[in-house]
Each structure stands twice: as C-alpha cells, then as structure tokens.
Design brief:
By secondary structure, the protein is an alpha/beta fold. Helices cover 37% and strands 14% of the residues. It has 15 helices and 14 strands. The strands form three sheets. It has a ten-stranded mixed β-sheet. Strand 13 and strand 14 form a beta hairpin. The model has no long low-confidence stretch (mean pLDDT 93).
Length: 410
C-alpha cells in the first residue's frame, strides 16, 4: 500500500538521534546521557528500520526545497554502526524524488576507522568532530567510562577523515577550563587542520533535587544553580575576543569561525546565521531513536514533545499551535532591556534555554551569557562595520587584515 502524501511546510531542519542518548564517552558536562531515563528500557537506544524509513521518507517529502540535508547526532551516532548508515543512504536514494540529498554527522570521533572514513568520503558526508582543545584541556571533561581521556583517539579518527578527503569541521564546547586558554585552543584547532570552527558555550544548571535542571519556564526549578564546569559570561566574552583578535589579524577568509560569520552576516543585514540568535525559533526539531519528536535539541522534555513521526507528520507538528507558541515566545517574551539593546539585531536575546537571569529592572528572561555577548559585539563592532563596507564594495572581507581596524585589535 502506497503511503499517503506527506504534507509540506516552510523550511525546517531535524537532528536525528539514531542511538538516542547512548554514548561511548562519559563527558562530565554532557546533558544528554540522563535522557535514557525519559524513554525507559522498553524503547532501547536503537532506531529501528521502520522508524528510520518513515523518518527518511517523510522528512524528504515535507521539504519544499531542491536539496534536503539530514543531520545525525547523539549521544554518539556511530554506535549504530556502518550497516545502519548504509541503509540510510539506500533509503535516501529510494525516496529522494529528484532532490539532492546531503548528510551531516556529528561524532566524538572515537569509533572512526578506515572503513568508516571510506564510507563517509564515498557518500560526501560532512563530519563534525568534537575537540575541546589540546589533550590537557580536552581530557579534563571528555573521558570514557573508565575515566580515560579521549583526545588521542579523537585525533586518530580525525587523521583518518583527512587522509580519505572527508569534509569536516570541529565543535568545541567552551567550558570553565578551556575558556581560560583561548589562543591555545584556537592554535590547536588550526594546527590539526580545522578551517571551520564552532564554539559552543557550556551553560548547564543543577536542580535542587539533583540532576540537570530543565529550561526556564513555569515548571522550572527556581533554586537551580549553574554547574561548576559551565563557562562564566565574562570568560566567554573574553574567550571570543582573544580569538577574534588573532583571526582578524591573520585568518579572515582562511579560517571560518561560526560565531564570527554570524556576526558579519548580522552587521551586513543578512540576518541571523545561528538559530540561537534568530528572532524566533521552532523550525529545528529533534527526532529520537523511537520516533518521538521534540521542539528543539535543548528541549527534550515531556512538555515539549510534539508527537511521534510514525503517527504525525512533520508539517502537523511544526505548524501545531504548541510549536507556533514555542517559536514566537522567544520574541514575545524578550525583556525590555533586551529590546532597547544596541546589539539586539545580532543577538535577539540568545537561546531561550539560557534566559534564566533577571534584568537590572528585575524583569525575568535575561540570557545568562548577556554580558559576554555584549562585550564581544562591542569589541567587534568597528571591524564588523569595516568588513561590511568591503562587502558592499564587492571586495573580500579579508582585506580587513591590512586595515587600521586589524592593527587596533592587537
């Protein structure tokens, strides 16, 4: 029997977690491992074939675009094995319907071997590898179940990707430890060959009852406190500024730092390049191994469950009143202090999950990282304006490296 046509909707993306929260590492700061309790033992941690095919088919058909990009994350998605991803590619070909299909895989890199690298190269996967800096910083928090650091194994996997010509980027979680060593982190990332770099600020809270606290909201734990491994707002701003100085003097057009690319796009009027800085949200879903679909990667909690892809279409879940309210609340709940901010165009209050502080006026909803964002945006403002002028003149932003702005940034 031919399935009914899948309704289409406006552009959206999905992070699929084929291994659920299962992982072969035990990173101190991981917020996802405890999600196992939310699914229960009956669901396991493996996406079954019927769920996979429903996901691939419906995700492609719901997109009103000539190219469809799949994002695979975890936990650790490589735990699902190569045969699973061979099946992914087979199903994508079967249901492509004339679309171009691309894949992005986020991994800790530990399980990568030559067979994996050959497969990823053959099928043009973009691979994101988690690297928190040199070994003495990376291994502070990114350990396995035996407490052993993972850095050496990660670099071994990365070298295999490079030797097979796999496109890759690096994701660095900025935490309490490595935030103190920004140039050491940046130098290590460029030394290992990364030219596309993402910095993810670590902000997690512990509830008074134990375990990680959920996002702000009516059911939030008001006594939750920020974990000892989270980056402080000031440290995060200083981290970005130190690396931006170095980048502005030597690496514009050669190394692409996601935060800097976003800022330049905002100054140039192209809009937010990152969902956390968009005016609204709600178009980035998460599909768990059992087909359960949630409002966002940071909102995998029962109250944000939209349904299951085996019973409900993506279009229905995305366009549901609950998800529409979730997406618009980011804009509608923005505090007055943020609305008046000179950098609202580049920030829009940041990720709602981090809006658990009060403003100077006592209004709730201020982003924990506000001070860091403001210091970075203020520092970058003159050079961002200069690079925007270069773009408007049809010239490459890299010319900034010969300008007074780069000299002043030293």
């Amino acid at each position: 029997m031919t399935p009914a046509p899948t309704p289409r909707t406006e552009p959206f993306s999905v992070l699929a977690k084929p291994s659920g929260p299962a992982c072969n590492l035990r990173c101190t700061y991981c917020f996802y491992l405890e999600k196992k309790e939310a699914f229960g033992p009956a669901s396991g941690t493996r996406m079954q074939d019927d769920t996979l095919e429903a996901f691939v088919r419906d995700y492609i058909h719901a997109q009103d675009a000539p190219e469809v990009t799949f994002g695979w994350q975890g936990g650790e998605p490589t735990l699902r094995g190569l045969d699973f991803f061979r099946r992914v590619v087979e199903l994508q070909r079967r249901h492509a319907d004339g679309r171009k299909i691309s894949n992005a895989l986020q991994t800790n890199g530990v399980l990568l071997d030559a067979e994996w690298a050959q497969f990823l190269a053959e099928h043009d996967f973009l691979v994101g590898v988690s690297v928190d800096g040199p070994a003495h910083l990376h291994d502070d928090y990114r350990t396995d179940a035996a407490g052993q650091g993972s850095h050496e194994r990660v670099l071994r996997g990365l070298e295999l990707l490079k030797s097979h010509g796999v496109d890759f980027n690096t994701l660095t979680v900025v935490n309490r430890a490595n935030a103190k060593r920004p140039l050491e982190v940046y130098r290590h990332l460029t030394d290992i060959g990364s030219r596309f770099i993402q910095f993810i600020p670590l902000v997690e809270r512990v509830s008074a009852a134990g375990g990680l606290a959920g996002p702000p909201g009516p059911h939030a734990d008001r006594d939750a406190r920020v974990t000892s491994w989270s980056v402080s707002p000031v440290a995060y701003g200083d981290f970005l500024i130190a690396i931006y100085r170095k980048w502005l003097q030597h690496d514009v057009g050669r190394v692409f730092v996601q935060m800097f690319d976003h800022a330049l796009g905002s100054w140039a009027g192209a809009g937010a390049g990152l969902c956390v800085f968009a005016e609204t949200c709600g178009r980035q879903l998460v599909v768990e191994h059992d087909g359960s679909t949630y409002a966002c990667d940071h909102y995998v909690y029962p109250q944000y469950r939209l349904g299951n892809l085996r019973q409900t279409s993506f279009a229905e879940m995305l366009d549901s009143p609950a998800q529409q309210r979730f997406g618009s609340a980011k804009r509608d709940a923005l505090p007055a202090q943020c609305r008046r901010c000179e950098f609202r165009f580049a920030c829009n209050g940041g990720c709602p999950k981090h809006r658990f502080l009060q403003t100077a006026d006592g209004e709730p909803g201020l982003n924990y990282l506000c001070a860091g964002y403001r210091s970075f945006f203020r520092f970058a403002d003159p050079s961002m304006r200069a690079m925007t002028r270069l773009l408007q003149q049809g010239r490459p932003p890299a010319e900034i490296m010969r300008s007074p702005q780069a000299v002043k940034a030293r």
